[in-house]
Amino acid sequence: MPPETIRHHDTGHDLTHYFGRLLVTCPNCSGQALILPTPGTPYDQESHYDAVFHPRRLTCTRCAAVAGWSMRREGKVGFGVCVSGGTSDPFFGHPLWLQTPCAGHVLWAYNGQHVEDLRAYVAAGLRERGETRANSSMFSRLPLWMKAADNRGQVLAGLAKLHDLTACVRR
Q1: Are 97 and 24 in contact (CB under 8 A)?
Q2: First to last CA, the chain
Q3: Which of 5, 11, 68, 107 yields a CA-CA distance of 20 to 30 A from 88?
Q4: Rg (CA), the chain
Q5: Which H or E run includes 166?
Q6: Can you give the pLDDT at residue 54?
Q7: Residue 144, phi-psi category: left (phi > 0), alpha (psi -120 to 50), beta (remainder)
Q8: Cα dihedral across residues 54, 136, 7, 168: positive or negative
Q9: Cα–Cα dist 33/22, whole Å
Q10: Alpha-carbon torsion 51, 139, 85, 80, what sign?
Q11: How far is residue 140 from each of residues 9, 11, 80, 82, 134, measured CA to CA in Å?
Q12: What are phi and psi of 23, to 5 degrees?
């Protein structure tokens, strides 16, 4: 289907929408590790607070590495806030598993759903904004090189590489 006929509607999600499952490079063996909300604690994927402040656990099925992350608190003030965006995970700071060179930059994603959402956006010839505040959604904050029609083929090829990396994700 030609790009002109594909439509994309921005749902308004920001990057924290993808924080429920992060694929990273294991700090011990350089294999693929997974960061999830700490098991046994209630987690609401739609809650921005839970996405940013909820305790996390990193696990690697290759070498059995395990690590925990939680917000350090002093009274009612929390420290150790996660930083989203870029080629490292927002909690531990480990390199993302899903990254590849693309159009002179690094194309990255947090997980398979993030890759698919980016692919749907980049492939679309018509990109519609939703009922969101200006510049608050992930798509409105993408770098210009990813949005440029001249780079569409390279970005889609890069996203295909990232998709292939998600195919070998251990469940």
Answers
A1: yes
A2: 32
A3: 11
A4: 17
A5: helix 152-167
A6: 84
A7: alpha
A8: negative
A9: 8
A10: negative
A11: 12, 11, 27, 21, 8
A12: -100, 125
| Cα gap 15→5, rounded to integer Å | 27
Burial category of 113 from C-beta neighbours within 10 Å (exposed 0-12, middle 13-18, buried 19 and up): middle
User: 32: Cβ–Cβ under 8 A, 6 or more apart, which residues?
Assistant: 23, 24, 25, 26, 60, 62, 97, 168, 169, 170
Question: CB of 115 within 8 A of CB of 160?
Answer: no
Instruction: For residue range 79-124, list pLDDT tens digits in order.
Output: 455 566 789 999 999 999 999 999 999 999 999 999 999 999 899 8
Buried b (16+ CB within 10 A) or exposed e, 114-151: bbebbbbbbebeebeeeeeeeeebbbbeeeeebeeeeb
Residue type, 161: K
Contacts 24+ apart (CB under 8 A), 87-93: 89/22, 89/24, 89/35, 90/19, 90/22, 91/22, 91/35, 91/56, 92/24, 92/27, 92/35, 92/56, 92/58, 92/67
